[in-house]
Amino acid sequence: MAAELENRQSGDTALLMQAFEVFTHASNSLESAFSQLQSQVRTLTEELEAKNLELEKSLREKQEAQDYLRKILERLPCGVIVFDQNGGITLCNPMASDVLGAHTAGSLLPETRGFFAASASADLTGKEIESEFSLNGRNRVLATSGTSLSNEEGEATGTLHIIRDVTEMKALQERNKRVERLSAMGEMAVELAHEIRNPLGSIELFASLLVKELSGDSRRWAENIRIGTRSLNTIVSNMLQFANPVQAELSKVNLHDVIGEIAKFTEPIMSQRQVGLETCLTARHPVISGDHELLKQMMLNLVFNAMKAMPSRGSLIIRTRDIGTKLELEIQDTGIGIPAEYLDRIFDPFFTTNRNGTGLGLSVVHQIVEKHSGTIRVTSEMNRGTCFVITFGREPQEGIL
Ligand SMILES: Nc1ncnc2c1ncn2[C@@H]1O[C@H](COP(=O)(O)OP(=O)(O)OP(=O)(O)O)[C@@H](O)[C@H]1O
Ligand SMILES: [Mg+2]
Questions:
Q1: Ligand 2 center–CA 110 separation, angstroms
Q2: Is residue 336 within 8 Å of residue 330, measured between CB atoms?
Q3: 65, 133, 309, 387 — which has fewest CB within 10 A?
Q4: Are residues 257 and 397 in the same domain?
Q5: Average per-residue pLDDT for the chain
């Protein structure tokens, strides 16, 4: 009985051992299959991550390229507009919107539609077409060139147009043409002025001879001819000086001599107009390095202006004084005065309030003063008078350093 029991027990143990062995084997192969699976999952995950990274990179690159293109389109100084095959807008940069006016729901405003109809009918060879049209009440000139677009299969997908607003450029070109015409006229005027100057000089000379020969009324008439021709001569000289400034021929000039010449010359007209001339020449060494003729032209312009400001009665006062190393010349009148708002403009070329004036007088005076390294300033009071003050550097006195 005990032996039977022992036999059954050893049979069970063998069976258990066998079962255990099968279990161990199964567990081993399960483990290896699991680790294989794990490594496969890892590889796949890595591959997936790499693919994801690649995808992200390509998306980022695409986005960057798009941003780059958008920035270029935004900053382009010309308009870019793309139409699809049905004429709908697929792209329109800010400049194009600006130039063409707002476009709603992908289509153009009626005013600009005609413009593209014309350029679309062109053969889109990149040749620029200019058209003028009115947008929001403003006339615009636009130049456009077009290119047809196609996909990879070569099928037409639309057209791309580059638009330039050439309104300003066109206006500038027109202005340039006008300036060219004016400058040609200016050159002609200068030639004419040269031609006029010689006979004027002769008339003035003959009038001076007549003044010496004649007396009474005839003498006064001759004086009027003389002053009239000199006034004309000053206008012609101003024109020439303005158009073609001559170099100053410098020598020692005594300003009191110039004042004497001008006073003697204008004395008859002053007495006719009852304008008294006062001179107060206190400068002790009135010598400057200057151009005698130009200084005379400067003085004549200032005196003629003063005369125009005093059509009947008045005083003209000419003063000189020493101010340290400088010499000051003052020309004062008791005329109509200059309105405060004009004081900044009187030296501008062509500024005039006189119906027959050229407005070149003071601009030439300014030029001449500058040629002598001097300065000019003006003070004026309405209906009281005007005073021009010119300051020159003085020539060193001989023997005095
Ligand atoms: N002494 C003055 N008194 C009052 N106004 C003056 C005087 N001098 C100049 N002006 C003003 O300055 C303007 C410009 O003077 P400017 O000499 O340049 O030209 P103009 O005298 O009008 O013409 P032009 O010199 O060709 O005869 C004058 O039109 C005038 O309005
Ligand atoms: Mg003048």
A1: 56
A2: no
A3: 65
A4: yes
A5: 88
Whether 146 lines ligand 1, by a CB cut-off of 6 Å, is: no
Task: Indicate the pLDDT class of residue 68, thresholds 50, 70 and 90.
Answer: very high
d(CA 172, CA 152): 44
- For ligand 1, atom 31, which residue shows the shortest CA distance? 353
- Residue 285's domain is classified under what CATH number? 3.30.565.10
DSSP 342: G
Which region among 9-13, 200-204, 294-298, 311-315 has the lowest average model confidence (pLDDT)? Answer: 9-13
Return the ligand 1 atom nearest residue 331 CA.
1
Q: Are residues 103 and 19 in the same domain?
A: no
pTM: 0.63
Residue with tokens 């405060």, as numbered in its chain? 340
SS3 category, 74: helix
Given a cut of 50, is residue 385 above it in pLDDT?
yes
Q: Which amino acid is at 94?
A: P
- Pairing of the two strands 129-135 and 138-150: antiparallel
User: Among 130, 165, 200, where does a domain finish?
Assistant: 165
Counted domains in the chain: 4
**CB of 359 sitting under 6 A from ligand 1:** yes
User: Rounded CA gap, 125 and 136, in Å?
Assistant: 30
Task: Please give the residue range of the domain that contains residue 124.
Answer: 76-165
Of 137, 165, 193, the domain-final residue: 165
| Mean pLDDT (whole number) for 376-382 | 97
